[in-house]
Design a protein that fits this description.
Structural class: alpha+beta
Number of helices: 8
Order of helices and strands: EEEHEEEHHHEHEHEEHHEEEEEEEEEEE
Radius of gyration: 24 Å
Helix content: 10-25%
CATH architecture of the largest domain: 3-Layer(aba) Sandwich
Bound molecules: adenosine-5'-diphosphate, magnesium ion
Shape: elongated
CATH class of the largest domain: Alpha Beta
Strand content: 25-35%
């Protein structure tokens, strides 16, 4: 196992910069997920850690060793891609042992390590099969088995679950997390799916357009997003955003464009007239005994909870409630907002404001 340190790393293709100075310190044994919209530079960064892309400037270190000029196979990492890239003409066993055979490990050692990995992944009965005779989930497991067999210092995963159907994705999510709990090997994992990031990671790195927006534990990002981008990206359904301005009043208060007035936390650094976005998560809006008038627009039951879209003045807001909801679209309701759970952002900079 090893730490991974990314220090002021930049990447340019010809004269186009796609990563603009990335700093990430990954602890030994940590499970870190790089998440962000497609094209933000996640794969590029992962491939630089793997040694598959040149580093334009800055350094990547694995353990205490800077690896900028170390060949991929000397980095003691194992990578799992979205396309499992199994050898179709080799059995599961041969696929899993391939890299050890290449490294000329003794036969008994290869067989022992393949069996061990197969046991961890529940592949013992499939060792003689060919990839074409496996389901998507089983192929995925073989690709992971191939990585595990190498007992690397660091696992690198690039969207390994994207090709699986929704149900299998959820199952593999827990399997990978359990695998990490068992092996305790450092993992750097790339996904565009914030739920994957939230459910699996020790820490999440949120990226956008080649920059790191925020690094933190899943709940740190959820509870205290440092800007509007992270606030909107983490959480599903997403945080509601209500635009408005700071009122000129004794106590700090907010007035939305539709006339909704809310008190702001005391000590928050705002000035009268300042444009704000107030954020509130769907679970912090109650649909009973409130005093905020809204019209029901859409009701989406999921079983355990119901998501309800309301129109609040001109702004749509979504509430997520666990109780059954008996109103219909077009009806008026009185909403309640948990003001202790409100997030405040500067509308111009997008930065979180707090006392
Ligand atoms: N070989 C390349 N040449 C030029 N641009 C590239 C190359 N590879 C990736 N890019 C660009 O770099 C940016 C980041 O890509 P990528 O790391 O694949 O994003 P992500 O994995 O987050 O979807 C994108 O704008 C992409 O078009
Ligand atoms: Mg990618």
């Amino acid at each position: 196992m090893a730490s991974v340190t990314v220090d002021n790393v930049r990447k340019s293709y010809v004269n186009f910069e796609v990563l603009h100075g990335i700093d990430i310190e990954i602890q030994d044994g940590e499970f870190v997920i790089l998440v962000g919209p497609s094209g933000c530079g996640k794969s590029t960064l992962l491939r630089m850690i793997a040694g598959l892309e040149d580093i334009s400037s800055g350094t990547v270190a694995i353990g205490s060793k800077v690896v900028n000029n170390v060949a991929p196979k000397e980095r003691d990492i194992a990578m799992v891609f979205q396309s499992y890239a199994l050898y179709p003409h080799l059995t599961v066993e041969a696929n899993m042992g391939f890299s050890l055979r290449l490294a000329k490990a003794p036969k008994s050692e290869i067989s022992r390590r393949v069996k061990e990995a197969a046991q961890i992944l529940g592949l013992e009965t499939l060792l003689d099969r060919y990839p074409r005779n496996l389901s998507g989930g089983q192929r995925q497991r073989v690709a992971m088995g191939r990585a595990i067999v190498r007992q690397p210092q660091v696992f690198l995963f690039d969207e390994p679950l994207s090709n699986l159907d929704a149900k299998l994705r959820v199952q593999m999510r827990s399997e990978i997390k359990q695998l990490h709990q068992r092996l305790k090997t450092t993992i750097v994992y790339v996904t565009h799916d914030q739920i994957e990031a939230m459910t699996m990671a020790d820490r999440i790195v949120v990226m956008r357009d080649g920059y790191v927006e925020q690094i933190g534990s899943p709940l740190e990002l959820y509870d205290r997003p440092s800007n509007l981008f992270v606030a909107g990206f983490i959480g599903s359904p997403g945080m509601n955003f209500i635009p408005g301005t700071v009122l000129d009043a004794l106590q700090p208060a907010f007035r939305s464009e539709s006339g909704l007035v809310l008190p702001l936390p005391t000590g928050i650094p705002v000035t009268p007239g300042q444009a704000l976005i107030v954020g509130i998560r769907p679970e912090h809006i109650g649909v009973r005994q409130g005093d905020i008038e809204a019209i029901v627009e859409l009701i989406e039951p999921t079983g355990a909870e119901t998501q309800i879209t309301f129109r609040l003045g001109g702004t749509p807001v979504i509430a997520s409630v666990r109780e059954r909801f008996d109103k219909h679209p077009g009806e008026k309701v009185l909403l309640q907002m948990d003001l202790s759970a409100v997030h405040v952002f500067d509308a111009k900079t997008g930065a979180r404001l707090e006392a």
